[in-house]
Amino acid sequence: MTELLCNYLGGRWQTGTGAGTVLRDPVLGTELVRVDATGHDLAEGFAFAREQGGAALRALTYRQRGALLAETLKVLQANREAYEEIATANSGTVKNDSAVDIDGGLFTLGVYARMGDTLGDRQHLLDGDMARLGKDPLFQSQHVMTPTRGVALFINAFNFPSWGLWEKAAPALLSGVPVIIKPATATAWLTQRMVKDVVDAGVLPAGALSVICGSSAGLLDQLQAFDVVSFTGSADTAAVIRSHPAITRRSVRVNIEADSLNSALLLPDAGAEALDLLAKEVAREMTVKSGQKCTAIRRVFVPQAQYEAAAQAISARLAKTTVGNPRNPSVRMGALVSREQLQSVHEGLALLKTQTQVLHDGAQHALVDADAALACCVGPTLLGVGTAAASDSAQLVHDTEVFGPVATLLPYRDLPHALDLVRRGQGSLVTSLYGGDPAALAAAALALADSHGRVHIISPDVAALQTGHGNVMPQSLHGGPGRAGGGEELGGARALNFYHRRSALQASTLVLAQVQATSPAASAP
Q: What is the predicted pLDDT for the residue at 145?
């Protein structure tokens, strides 16, 4: 029987009491490991994290917590080769795609480790300046930010078992808040292994970092008033989380990242160079991690006159993509994570095809070194609607996210029409703009900023410098309004706001001066 992975809860490693769920190689179909979370004392585990992990973290300064993150990073870097092997086996990703997840997580961790030095030897943050409350300046108000005295519960998606962990855990731990991570079952192995390496190295205080692999049953029941929840996944699951009694009755703070129909927009009169940049980025976003990215481009908008040229340029790049076993060095795109995900992509494609035409057929890609009967592989597929009028009527394209290597090309009449079509995504994580006129790009970006967490602007002058439509950089906001969940993560130091409580201290200027100058030794944990 395959190995049953241990969970770390209540300051100790423990196994579930059930048979567990088998994780399989999505290319070979072989059993890898099992995960199970039944039989654990969740109340005891959450209490341990709050009382032991939380107290230990709050007793440290931001600089000291940053140093812990730096030591955590060293542990992970030392074991990176093992993580890549797990990603290949469990996620079916090629080497470069595994690096997007693994190295992306490590890079983000490093950014927040260094931020600890910037925040310095304090245990609270000042929010703005003192504000006079009356004519006499002696009595004033000072807003402060202090770490919440709860636990951060992370319920993550299957596509980023490394980055999804560390982009949340790094700012939480830097803030002084202990973390309990519940990774998606299908790819939980990498998350569990990373946590195990850090715990076994003794880098963090006991209770600061916990992991539960398997069913999430009962986790939300443990939440208390000062806990926080961050979820990445479907809108349906997000609705269940938001309506849970522990959240609605105790006002538990929740951050949601859900579905997102991200776009790429070629501005009118953009020129051949901008069109080539768009085609390159769309093809990359469709194929990196087999399109299983929350930020991947799903809808591509171009002027009607450039529709055929865009279809040919994108299709030509997709045709060069080899699909199959990620262990074969000639393969550029690996597998979807599971048979369930493969079925979901096939069903979504069938639905979109009722309102679109196939411009590049993924079924034409012969699998390399993989058995089509076993492997969860699918070739990249570009769909299109042909006319600007069809862009209006193809409502399914604006409503349906196929979480795989699928995108739809849609022509528009003029820029106002294009902006309206982009907004029909009802709120997205990111949109990309392509053009050469700085004024036109800036105006379009500001017009779309209210409905997107991030606007990525690619002009020829930054073609070699831009970080990529789908790459989430820790310095920039990750999240989006509307159907994207309404959440916010990262954004540099902004990420710490979620894990702090803001309070107004109203006092003598002499008292507030002490608050502003409080040394770490004088602060109570």
A: 97
φ, ψ dihedrals at 387, nearest 5°: -130, 155
Domain 42-258+488-522: give its CATH superfamily. Aldehyde Dehydrogenase; Chain A, domain 1 (3.40.605.10)
Q: What is the mean pLDDT of each run of 10 residues along the chain (525 residues)?
A: 93 93 96 95 97 98 98 98 97 96 98 96 94 92 97 96 98 98 97 98 97 94 97 93 95 95 96 96 98 97 98 98 97 97 97 98 96 96 97 97 98 98 97 97 98 97 95 97 96 97 96 80 36
Q: Which of 294, 377, 401, 489 is catalytic?
A: 294
Query: How many CB atoms are located within 10 Å of the residue 363 CB?
Result: 10
pLDDT of residue 16: 93
pTM of the model: 0.95
Residues 6+ apart with CB under 8 A from 47: none
Q: Which helix (H) or strand (E) holds 112?
A: helix 95-119
Distance of CA 6 to the CA centre of its chain: 25
pLDDT at 93 (0 to 100): 97
Report the candidate in 283, 269, 354 with the shortest Cα–Cα distance to residue 312: 283
Say if residues 439 and 367 touch (Cβ distance below 8 Å).
Answer: no
Nearest to 65 by CA among 196, 203, 202: 203
Domain ranges in the chain? 42-258+488-522, 262-473
Question: Active-site residue among 84, 257, 285, 489?
Answer: 257
Closest CA to 145 of 117, 123, 164, 160: 123
**505 Cβ neighbours under 8 A, 6+ residues apart:** 141, 142, 143, 144, 511, 512, 515
SS3 124: coil
Rounded CA gap, 11 and 283, in Å? 45
Which burial class, exposed, middle or buried, applies to 357 when counting CB atoms under 10 A from its CB (0-12, 13-18, 19+)? middle
3-state helix, strand and coil shares in percent for the chain, rounded to the nearest 5: 45, 20, 35
Please confirm, yes or no, whether 6 is among the known catalytic residues.
no
> Which of 243, 238, 237, 200 shows the shortest CA–CA distance to 82?
200
Query: What is the fold of 262-473?
Result: Aldehyde Dehydrogenase; Chain A, domain 2 (3.40.309)
**Catalytic-residue membership of 294:** yes
